[in-house]
Amino acid sequence: MLKDINVLSIENISKSYGDKMLFENLNLTITHTDKIGLIGINGTGKSTLLKIISGLETQEIGEVNFMKDISIEFLSQNPNYHNNSTILEQIFKGNSKSLNCIRDYEETLEALELNSSDNKLQKRLSQLSIQMKALDLWDYESQIKTILSKLKISNLNQKMGDLSGGLRKRVALAAVLISPCDLLVLDEPTNHMDNDTISWLESYLKGRKGALLMVTHDRYFLDRVVNKIIELDHGQLYSYSGNYTYFVEKRIERRFLENALESKRLNLYKNELSWIRRGAKARTTKQKARIQRFETLENTKYSIEDPTLTISAAHSRLGSKIIEINHIWKSFSQSPCIADFSYTMLKNDRIGIIGDNGIGKSTLLNIMTGRLLPDKGSIDIGSTVNMGYFSQESENMDENMRAIEYIKEVAEFFMTSDGLKVTASQIMETFLFSKEIQWTTISRLSGGEKRRLYLLKTLMSKPNVLILDEPTNDFDLDTLKVLESYLEDFIGAVIIVSHDRYFLDRTCKRIFSFEGNGAIIEHTGNYSEYVANRKNDTISTKEDPVK
To answer: Is the pLDDT of residue 498 over 80?
Structure first.
């Protein structure tokens, strides 16, 4: 068996922004067989660490040692692009001879489609075909076309500035996937992708040769792709050899041990502090050692967490009439996205809405919340409904406000479902905002922290009908667990648009599937049950051609 080859090693690197220390003295080795998932709370420096590894940022202290002639491809959360560049130019922006040849070949093909009788283009295509054969690129070109097809990228002449955010992300992903590299670094690759595309990407990355390092909140994705988890927690890295399920088990063990160590440290610290306060002086060697031990205890702290923290919120009364959708239709440019859809919402509904990007899911939510009118049909909302709507686009925030001031705009206090009155600060801590971060201006928060703040404000408005549009995008796994816990205890109806299969399984009991041409199929059960049901329907249809 071949020995693992080190692709890169990190030695004692540290990074801060202003007075905020992101991480300190990190060490990590990545081998060519590693498929690593990097997880941690938003704002802890995951994206910064990926950029340092990819050579886009520099550390303040320590070293990053790369394998000789290493090639790294990096997918950013927010990829850079030129508005006037075509999809084809954006995808084939590398400088390798092979990619340049394939790009020229594809450009010529696209041009010939518009002008098939152009002799110069025909001659150029013939020359490029000979070059493709000489460089043995036909298989490679076929692989590239498969990647583009699976990522649902066509019309390569479209301008990047004219694309949706989701399509731009898929173009950026295609660009890094088609470029051979020793280390593939992906920051939230599944955001804005439909479930079929995510399933294909799982299979592709699992079978891909070479090292992989990625940040993703998709727990099924982590379980099926990675063979190692590294957790960035309180500025330190913890490594676990295994997938996400293995990591969850081992992290519980680690935190249980840390809690025990912290409890022991605090007891010792109290005893030593009492001794110091009595006026102890370092006269003897033993006394000096004891004072030194006190200083060590003071400076050593194990992260400790309260496993009982929840955000079970008080709710406003919800009458029998909630939302009645009556034969609604909606089209854009004569293309129907909702066709004759009706549904009467129940008090305890947990509805997950799925379907391809741009198919009409957010349109349905906007109609239900009154932001958009249907072409035909009506929406009837009960008088007791207090709707909380978490949209894909965060509301405009005053960047100069402190995070806690933003939350206090809703309420100074928060009532839990069991009648307990907690402060805005306490509820923010429950939602993973430390006291230090609470008093930070919003402008200094990470993108994920701003989304978490916006979500908390939505939940604090005491909704009895909660509508969440892609709530898992840009959230870390700890935030998702807090949200799942909240939804579990939430009294009222919940509607969720999401591509996160694990999240849908945890939170939803009914699925609305957008099938195209305005058709919406209802299924009773969670997402996995829906998928199994659809597979059985397909098998039955194949077995019974009359069906």
So the answer is: yes
